[in-house]
Amino acid sequence: MKPLAEPAIDAVKKKRIAFTPQRFSKIYYNWMENVKDWCISRQLWWGHRIPVFYCDDCGEMTVSKTDISVCPKCGSAHIRQDEDVLDTWFSSALWPFSTLGFPEKTAELEYFYPTDVLVTGYDIIFFWVARMIFSGLEHMNRIPFKDVLIHGLVRDAKGRKMSKSLGNGVDPMEIIEKYGADTLRFSLVNGVAAGSDLRFSEDKLEGSRNFMNKIWNASRFVLLNAQDKDIPDFESCRLTVADKWILTKLNRVIREVTVNVKKYELGIALAQLYDFVWSDFCDWYIELTKPVLYGDDENKRNQTLSVLIHVLAQTLKLLHPFVPFVTEEIYQNIPNHGESLMICEFPRYNAKNNFAKQKGDMESVMEIIKGIRNIRAQTGAAPSKKVRLYVKTDKKKLVKDTAQYIEKLAGVQEISFIAAKEELAEKTVSQIIAGFELYIPLGELVDTEKEIARLKNEKERAENEIRRADAKLSNNGFLEKAPKELVDKEREKLNKFIELRKKIIAELKSYEN
Ligand SMILES: [Zn+2]
User: Fold this and answer.
1) Going by C-beta distance under 8 Å and a sequence separation of 6 or more, which residues neighbour residue 370?
2) Which CATH architecture has domain 448-510?
3) Which one of 6, 74, 302, 359 has the minimum C-beta count within 10 Å?
4) Per-residue pLDDT tens digits of the chain, which is 513 residues long
5) DSSP labels for 327-374?
């Protein structure tokens, strides 16, 4: 083994072969530097049978590539082949070149050897990876691959290794049947660091399946709207501030995913895509396009659809390595987009698609929308209730230009500008964000008359309770006969309702202007 191990150690030391994560090269060195000679025969039925033939008459041992029936030494026909087979790992070590036609000098071997990357678990670094490396160097005189990407083991939800005796294993075919192949694949990659073990749980699968549904539903929305429309070429579209924002975000995610895939940080790449699809594309951009899609301007609508389709197609390309089936199915339904996603070029970062100013502008508008949503949530305003909005800002033009987004996404019916809060005569609820002060009349958020009626009702109920408890506590008979706990409880009740009445009165007062 020593002469085989030395050049194999050298190949990793000189970085002709690189382990990712790098820490796993230690395991490799540890095995290879302390390597013992290797018995390559096994007494099993399955495997490559050892090509050694024995003569029963003269005892001659012959090694031959082809089967022999006659002893080359004495001519006897009493020949039998050794029954042992090669160790599984000896055969597996031949994989990088035997699959390409070795020992023949095939075109495939010439073109594909050495391969780029080998992906495997850390538990077989010596058994398989090391043996492929020294076998490749010995038989081909070249390394078998440049990168070794090590992944962790899949463990159960409690972190235990899956095993037959524990009965905690999962059958991938059952998971695929229940959740789909893409969901399983996604769950095994999302957020997982290279080389780290992963805990497997149904919760994680459900989260992944929800994401598949999100992609599916968003795509259906775009494709249904685009049906039978005359969609212009994306390059010729006049872009809105929302379009420029999503294109900038898309461009950024293209760069991040590309960088991380190149570093084999697949878990990070996928997490970035997840955020882009879920938040930027679905929660924001699609919502921002709705006022135009449901509007009357056909030209604008078709241009918006063109941008939607462009972003969708690019996103599907980015997702394809992680979500192959769902993305392919959607892609083939996009009008005028090649026959298969599998043969598309991976998206490339393009500095031309960075719109820094519009990205900043759009993010300000999104902050405004979030601010208004906050106010609505705090006051418990009905989602359908439209409100008037007062804004104090230096960026009036931006607010005017994007008014339709604010109106549609935050339930605003009218936007007015003010120079100072003091201008507002009505009682308002405010939210202050960078560059903008937002005010909404309280009366717009809650139905004042209904609220006053409700509070008056509450006040009456509290007063009844107070009267009842008062009567009880001024009854000497009750005070003398009742157990102490019961009397205390009654006092407690009285105090509670006195407090409540105070609060209701204060609230009622706030409506008196
Ligand atoms: Zn013989």
Assistant:
1) none
2) Orthogonal Bundle (1.10)
3) 74
4) 999 999 999 999 999 999 999 999 999 999 999 999 999 999 998 999 999 999 999 999 999 999 999 999 999 999 999 999 999 999 999 999 999 999 999 999 999 999 999 999 999 999 999 999 999 999 999 999 999 999 999 998 888 988 888 888 888 999 999 999 999 999 999 878 888 999 888 888 999 999 999 999 999 999 999 998 888 988 888 999 999 999 999 999 999 999 999 999 999 999 999 999 999 999 999 999 999 999 999 999 999 999 999 999 999 999 999 999 999 999 999 987 878 999 999 999 999 999 999 999 999 999 999 999 988 888 888 888 899 999 999 999 999 999 999 999 999 999 999 998 888 888 888 888 889 999 998 877 877 777 788 889 989 999 999 999 999 899 888 888 888 888 999 999 999 999 999 988 987 887 765
5) HHHHHTTSTTS-S-GGGSPPP---GGG--HHHHHHHHHHHHHHHHHHH
Ligand 1 centroid–CA 46 distance in Å is 28
- Residue 70 Cα to ligand 1 midpoint, Å, equals 8
Closest C-alpha among 274, 276, 250 to residue 355? 250
Residue 80 Cα to ligand 1 middle (Å): 11
Same fold, 186-354 and 448-510: no
> 12 C-alpha to center of ligand 1: Å?
47
Tokens of residue 502, six digits: 């105070």
Q: How far is the CA of 84 from the centre of ligand 1 (A)?
A: 21
Domain-by-domain residue ranges, the chain? 2-49+84-151, 186-354, 357-444, 448-510
Report the separation in Å between the CA atom of 83 and the middle of ligand 1, taken as the mean of its atom positions: 18
Q: Ligand 1 centre from 298 Cα, in Å?
A: 93
Class of domain 186-354: mainly alpha
Ligand 1 centroid to residue 65 C-alpha, Å: 18
Query: What is the reported pTM?
Result: 0.80
Q: How far is the CA of 257 from the centre of ligand 1 (A)?
A: 66
CATH numeric code, 357-444: 3.30.2320
How far does the centroid of ligand 1 lie from the alpha carbon of residue 367, in Å? 91
Distance CA(384)–CA(191), nearest Å, equals 38
Find the DSSP H helices in 166-284. Answer: 172-179, 181-189, 202-226, 241-262, 266-275
How is residue 63 annotated by DSSP?
Answer: E
- Residue 61 alpha carbon to ligand 1 centre in Å: 8
